[in-house]
Amino acid sequence: MIPPLVTLSLLVLYCSPLLAQDDAVTNRDPNKLILLLLTSMPKGGGYSATSGATRNLQSAVQVSGGRLYVKPAAARPTYCSGATYLVFIQAIQRLLPESRVGEHLAEALAIRGQPDGVGVWGRWNANGPGTACLFRELRLGQNFTSFAEARPGDFMKIFWTDAVGMREHGHSVIYLGKGLANGVETVQFWSSNKPNGYGEKEVPRSRISYAIFSRLEAPSNIEGSVTLPSKNAYLSGLIRRESSIGEALDQSGIIR
After folding, report:
1. Distance CA 215, CA 213 (A)
2. Residues 126, 235: contact at Cβ < 8 Å?
């Protein structure tokens, strides 16, 4: 796990104060804000990828009176892409003036049980590089694969094997950094993890076959969600067919 001293430092930097909160918002550093939001997310709650967990997510992201309301505590238990999406849309809410998150955008961001590849949530929740494809389509920020370039607060899709699509084993997380445990390089991240749910986890770097990072840099471009094509054909097809890491990188706009 993350050494106590490192955890304490993160708490001092991101949980303290109104100073850290103001700094994150006024300097418009989405990564800092994302880390700050993690401190207010539920802990535990269990992991579940059932239809019931999706209904929990629908309850957690509601549109009422033309406004978007996010209540993460309602999504327990939940699964990895749901957990990271809750952080993503809260970051969008904080980084954009309230007047710009109007009814049409709120409806576009709501979870309505959209199938893989359809709408904003359907893209985020799809197999393969869902988050990265959404970032590319809306020009929300850069996608890349280098751990050397990664920063805490980047969104990250982990591929545990080289399979992409119907045989895929992946994990949607928020990257926290790298470390060493008994001489073994590790990767630390936050998500809804098996079996406990919301929280941090650390795994050996060697367990990760591939990773795609997505860094939120232009949150205002989320307004393009209103006119986003209904379906991303590549993502919607991954539930029925196999792809490849190479195709996933191409679809994410990552130059190899």
Report:
1. 7
2. yes
Q: Total structural domains in the chain?
A: 1
Q: Is residue 256 part of a domain?
A: no
Note whether 101 and 225 are within 8 A (CB).
Answer: no
Q: What secondary structure letter does DSSP report for 27?
A: T
Establish if 218 belongs to a structural domain.
Answer: yes
pLDDT digits (tens, 9 = 90+) for 79-119: 999 999 999 999 999 999 888 889 999 999 999 999 999 99
Q: In this structure, is residue 89 part of a structural domain? A: yes
How many residues can be counted in the chain?
Answer: 256
Alpha-carbon gap, residue 185 to 191, rounded angstroms: 20
pTM of the model: 0.90
Domain span at 119: 4-251
Cα angle: 53, vertex 133, 108; to 5 degrees: 55
Burial of 13 by CB count in 10 Å (0-12 exposed, 13-18 middle, 19+ buried)? middle
The answer to whether residue 182 is domain-embedded is yes
> Which segments of the chain does DSSP mark as H helices, in order?
4-14, 17-26, 30-38, 51-60, 80-95, 103-109, 119-124, 130-138, 233-237, 245-251
Tell me the C-alpha to C-alpha distance, in Å, between residue 202 and each of 76, 77, 184, 190. Answer: 22, 20, 11, 9
